[in-house]
Structure formats: C-alpha cells, structure tokens
Amino acid sequence: MKIFISADIEGISGVVNKTHTMPQGHDYHMARTLMTNEVNAAIEGALEAGATEIVVNDSHGRMTNILLESLNPNAQLITGSPKKLGMMEGIDDSYDAALLIGYHARMNTPGVLSHSYHGGAISNISINGKNAGEFFINASVAGFYNVPVIVVSGDNILAEEVKEVDGNIETVVVKTAHARLTAKCLHPTVVHKAIKETVKNAILSSKVNPISLDGAIEMEVTFLNSGMAEMAAIMPKTEFLGGSKVGYRGKDIIEAYRALICMYNLANVVI
C-alpha cells in the first residue's frame, strides 16, 4: 500500500503568524519541529494500517521545512523547489490514498493564516465557477490520478471547507481560529494521537472517492492589484479580464495547476 502526504505549515497546531512560517522568524525552527512531528504522526498511522511505502512532499514556502533527520525513516521526503506540481509533487496513479497535513483555509475566509498558494499575490481562485483553495485544488490534482484524499488536518475553518466538498473525508481539527493570527491550540501530544488514529482508521475503512474534474478547466485568478494581474497575463493562453483578474482555460487540472504556479510567480515580481 502506497501513501502520499502533502504537508504545509500554517495548519500545524501552535503556528499562528509569520514568526512561525518564515525562515527569519524567531519561532520558525520550533514550527518546523512541530510540523515534522505532525507528519510523523500521520506516517505512524499509515504504517499501522499496513502502508508499505510513504512519500512526503514538503509543501510550504521554499519547501525545505521538514527536518529530514527527525522524519520517520520509513518515509521518503521530497524537499526543495521549484516543483512542476508544487504542493503535489510526486503524486501519480501508483498511490492508494493521499493525506493533507497542516493545511489551512482559503484566502478571504476567517481561518488561521488563510490564503491561497500566495497570500501576497492572490485574492481568490475559482475553478469552473467555484471558489477554491489549496485543499480543493490539490485534492483535484490527486483525483486526476484517481487518488482519493482521505484525511485533512488543520483548523476548524478548513474542516468546514473540506466537509462542504465531501463529508466522508476525515478531518483532524488541531486548533480553533479566534482571528486570522490567533488560535486556541491543542497540545502536540493530543494532536499526534488524533492524527495517528484518524489516518489509521481512514486507511482501513475510508470510502472516499477521488475528486474528479473531467474535461477542460476554466480557471479565474484574482490578484491583489492590477499590476500583478497584468504581469501574470503575460503568460501564453491567459486572458486579462480587467481589474485584477486573469482567466485561463486548461485542457485538464494538471495543465491549469501548472499555469497557476507560473502566474503567481510572475505576479510575485510586482510585489
């Protein structure tokens, strides 16, 4: 049994602001440790459920956050950037299930550190007319390869976002949002037990179907200002829709996803 784990940092218990999420932050190393340990809890649950191969993709920022020397040795780590599939680098149809650990709610929702891929550039993303954040888009990438996302961990706002899409996906709420940079956090030992048991049970009994987006993808990306949109619209096949919005039609979710990565990196030049 082969399990894929995509791990972010904003949805880790105890992580609430940039001192935790940025390398220059005075609490960044602590946050890296917390992140690595929550991933380890997911790995332990997967192993107890019979997983024989586990691949972890570091999915935050420059994607060099997880401490390899502290990671469970039964897992392999994809670290560094750039990555053609970003937060889902390494996913393919050989996996039986995917886990999203340390995730957060989409931009413009009241979740802790809520954003969509690049909080300094993107205000909103819609896929086929539906507002979408990292959870839905990344789960759709997994679904392209017929891999279901069976467990998502993060705050309570993210859990609501997940359940709106599929109530069968298991969620682990590790903290409750009080404000965008404030949360009531569970102790790591409590979180680790919850993640481990939820992952184990989900692998053994989950009936979740992959999120499948068939056919062409109509994507609209709203940036924080018109200059960012103008820069993103330099990319071929994009359409500048006026204001701060750019449209893109992809043949499938993989093409659209890679286009999204290109667009927000272009837009980042304007910051």
Summarize the structure.
This protein has 271 residues and is an alpha/beta fold. It has helices spanning 18-21, 28-48, 134-144, 156-165, 188-205, 226-232, 253-267; strands spanning 2-7, 53-58, 75-78, 97-101, 122-127, 130-131, 149-155, 170-179, 182-185, 217-223, 238-240, 245-250.
Keywords:
single chain, 2 domains, 7-stranded mixed β-sheet, 12 strands, Gyrase A, domain 2, 271 residues, 5-stranded antiparallel β-sheet, Rossmann fold, 7 helices, alpha/beta
Write the layout of secondary structure elements.
Elements: E1 2-7, H1 18-21, H2 28-48, E2 53-58, E3 75-78, E4 97-101, E5 122-127, E6 130-131, H3 134-144, E7 149-155, H4 156-165, E8 170-179, E9 182-185, H5 188-205, E10 217-223, H6 226-232, E11 238-240, E12 245-250, H7 253-267
Parallel strand pairs: 1-2, 1-4, 2-3, 4-7, 7-8
Antiparallel strand pairs: 5-6, 5-10, 8-9, 10-12, 11-12
Characterise this structure.
- The protein is an alpha/beta fold.
- The protein folds into two domains: 2-123 and 130-205, Rossmann fold (3-Layer(aba) Sandwich); 217-270, Gyrase A, domain 2 (2-Layer Sandwich).
- It is built from seven helices and twelve strands.
- The strands form two sheets. A seven-stranded mixed sheet has the order 3-2-1-4-7-8-9, sandwiched between helices. A five-stranded antiparallel sheet has the order 6-5-10-12-11.
- The longest helix has 21 residues, at 28-48.
pLDDT < 50 runs, ≥5 residues: none
CATH topology of the largest domain: Rossmann fold
Q: How large is the radius of gyration?
A: 17 Å
* Shape summary: globular
How many domains in all?
2
Q: Could you state the CATH homologous superfamily of the largest domain?
A: Dipeptide transport protein
Task: Please give the CATH class of the largest domain.
Answer: Alpha Beta
Instruction: List SSEs in N-to-C order.
Output: EHHEEEEEHEHEEHEHEEH
Considering DSSP H and I runs of 4 or more, what fraction of the residues is helical? Answer: 25-40%
